Amino acid sequence: MHLPSTEGGIRSRQDDMSDTVGPTADDVSHDLANMNFSSCPREVMLLQLTLIKMLVDKAESQETEFSTRQKYCEILVLLLKEPKISSKLICLLSSCDQLLSHMASKSLASLVYFQLKEENALNVTWLTHSLKTLLEFPMCTQVAECLWTLTAIIKDILKDETVPKAGILKKLLSPLDDVLEGFYNSILLHHFDSHLYTSPYSEAANNLISFTDLLEALQASRIELELPLKCQRVLFLKVSYVLNIISSSAHYFIKKKFIMLLKKCVLCKPGEDTVSGSWVLQNPYFYEDMLALSNAVLQVVNLTWLNQIPLGEKASYFGSSEALPGDNTQSGSDQTALRAISLVVLKTLEFKFQNSATEAEIKEVFQSSMSQLLTFWRSHMKCSPQSHPVVHHCEWLSLVFIEQDDDMWEAAKALLLSYLKFDRLRRDAADNLSQKEEESWNFLTHASGYNPHCIFLFFLEKIAFDSTVLLDFLISSETCFLEYLVRYLKLLREDWHQFVNVCNYFDTKHGTSQPVSSIKPPHQEKQSCMSDVNLQNAPCEPEPQTLIPLTTSHNCLVFTTEQGNNEVAESNQSKSLLCNDSKSPLGSLQSLVNYDSSEDSELESVGKECLVNTKQMPLNNEHETMIRETVCSYTDDKQNKLKSQVLPLKQKGCNTSSSLACIVPSDNIVPLKIMLYKSTKCLEELQNAISRLQRRNLFPYNPSALLRLLSHVEKISKSINAP
Question: What is the side-by-side strand order in the sheet with 660-663?
Fold first, then answer.
């Protein structure tokens, strides 16, 4: 602005400082207001726009000194008194130069927000322009810039922790409420099969993409208002418009934006980068809106809506959408969109369940929706040649969500809550349920893929029964695993016999049952009161081949003696008994880092390296190291004892001082329950690891209630399985 003159030669710095007087606030604001954008070079215009944005940021920053902040505020107040500054910025919004248009939008949003906060007044010039632009749509199609500005203003308000957000949001949105509701109808009632929406770079697509961002900002702002405005509710009450876009032939990027928006809404997490609250405890409008959304989603799901969604290809290659030469990885469908759509269906089912009073209201809808969802998963999930085919419907959940732990536990929790509500409603409807009704109920849970015991065991199988992975989920703030586990352990405490039956089913179907001598292992359970016929008869896809038995024809078990301790020799036929299941799609969990070359190798490479999921709550380095040391040392102790505890057999006549083969008679043989042993052992290791961390004050919260549940489950297991 005030560039020094080069006339008169070179002067000393002291003379220059003595003669020059700094510009006043009036001078700066006057120069900013009288900028001639049309005659300035592009770079100077961008610098001027950046300066306006910087002034607002400095004026609002708490890190700026108070006196300096006051000076910035004086400049901005004087600047806002000049009506032409807003008009010039609005003119730049329609510039063909996208960078200029973007910077003008950001600068205008900053000025409007500053005026709202400091003067409690809405910028009349901007408001008039916004109302005119939105009302003239679709006759005037250039609305994206207007939507950008409004979205930026809302986000600025939500990020500011020093202002009463409710009052400012109401002052901003109230004049626009009716217009935004009408604009929702106008922009989403178009024919999206038109060529205008087949490219993400067209003006029509740009308008739609900008509107999704505004919708998310409006949903994120709901938490601040006691009573939501119509523009904040319209997405829920008229969600059918969005569902039509998702199944249309519009560009895939547009459809994915709306899919992700719906996912955030059903999880009550819109605008996670700007807000930290939740809708859950809001007013009754929330339940009314969620119920409307749930009914609309489930209605189209039952009309084969899922089959009409053409998911894009999986784009998971680093820096590219194409596979490298020689890469045998199958592309498959876009897993992010697949999980998002699945979560929308599962969460709407959960909400429908929680707001239903009778079994008849939900039984047909639930079965139909789950059937459609299972078909959807089967058509979009491509198993690798190394993985085993899916032979049970309950396995699909872990296969679909295993790559995204927060989504996985949201989905598992939704199905668990639906199961609990369904079970309670059917028990309320009948005082005493017959055995046939119980078997029919169990058959239904497996056929529809939501049996909670199956889902939990399939997940444990995928993580190779590693208790440290469960521990990592528990201390993470990014998943709802704690809530899920507490609810599941309460169910397990009351429904132990069904858990045992499901474990028996796993041993039968997966070939993990190993004939051994009649000497009972520590966790061999008694005969349960109900047979597992209903599990074996659950609808499954036919197995491709006959499972090879794990034992030889003579049922031979080989023992070796090493330093006085009996261990089971790891022959090729018994590896699956002692090690993690090789049939899991993930296989045995392997370390991602070679800790032998790191400074922490003493703590983290004891025995088998402890693989811990990287999603953890923020802890300081000292606590994190202590947690790893505690967990890894404990896991190492358990691994050293595992082989001797799986088969604690000591036959008479067997020479334990040398290697020999013990021939077990074919009569008087009972199966070893591998799945029951592995799952209960995993929970026991989790309990002990939590207890060790709690004693050292390293656990991030009080786990007493969780430990009581784990202890109770352990007591049930030992008391029932005691010889």
Answer: 565-568, 556-562, 660-663
Phi-psi region of 606 (alpha: psi -120 to 50; beta: other; left: phi over 0): beta
pLDDT digits (tens, 9 = 90+) for 520-562: 333 343 333 333 434 444 444 443 333 333 333 333 333 333 3
Instruction: Give percent of the chain above pLDDT 70.
Output: 65
- Res 31: pLDDT: 64
- Residue holding tokens 């290791």? 685
Q: Could you count the other beta carbons within 10 Å of the beta carbon of residue 434?
A: 9
Give the span between the Cα atoms of 578 and 590, in whole angstroms.
16
3-state secondary structure 503-527: HHHHHHHHCCCEEECCCCCCCCCCC
Across the chain, how many H-helices and E-strands are there? 30, 5
Which of 183-192, 376-385, 392-401, 425-434 shows the highest mean pLDDT? 392-401
Q: What is the pLDDT of residue 670?
A: 41
83-93 helix and 42-60 helix, angle to the nearest 10 degrees: 120
β-strands 565-568, 556-562: how paired? antiparallel
Taking the C-alpha atoms of residue 318 and residue 320, their distance in angstroms, rounded to an integer, is 6
Question: Mean pLDDT lowest for which of 191-195, 210-214, 357-361, 712-716?
Answer: 191-195
Give the closest residue to 367 by CA, choosing from 416, 306, 418, 291: 418
C-alpha distances in Å from residue 81, one per residue of 67, 78, 168, 329: 22, 5, 20, 62
The 10s digit of each residue's pLDDT in 573-631 is 333 333 334 343 333 333 333 333 333 333 333 333 333 333 334 444 445 445 545 55
DSSP track, 398-452: HHHHTT-HHHHHHHHHHHHHHHHHHHHHHHHH-SS--HHHHHHHHHHHHHTT--H
By three-state DSSP, how is residue 568 classified?
A: strand
Strands, E, within 151-206: which ranges?
none
Q: How many CB atoms lie within 10 A of CB 617?
A: 14
CB 71 within 8 A of CB 128: no
pTM of this prediction? 0.74
For the record, the structure tokens of 404 come out as 């995204």
Split at pLDDT 50, 70, 90, the class of 359 is: confident
Question: Distance between CA atoms of 406 and 591, rounded to whole angstroms?
Answer: 21
Q: Which residues contact 605 (CB under 8 A, 6 or more apart)?
A: 595, 596
Q: Which residue type does 694 have?
A: Q
Residue 35 has pLDDT above 50, yes or no: yes
Q: Tell me the sheet residues that pair with 672.
A: 514
Q: Which of 159, 275, 291, 298 is nearest to 216 (CA)?
A: 275
Q: Let me know: does 654 contact 559? Beta carbons within 8 Å.
A: yes
How far apart CA 268 and CA 159 sit, in angstroms, is 18
- Nearest C-alpha neighbor of 567 from the set 582, 577, 580, 581: 577
The CA distance from 424 to 444, in Å, is 15
CB 619 within 8 A of CB 546: no
Left (φ > 0), alpha (ψ -120 to 50) or beta: where does 148 sit? alpha
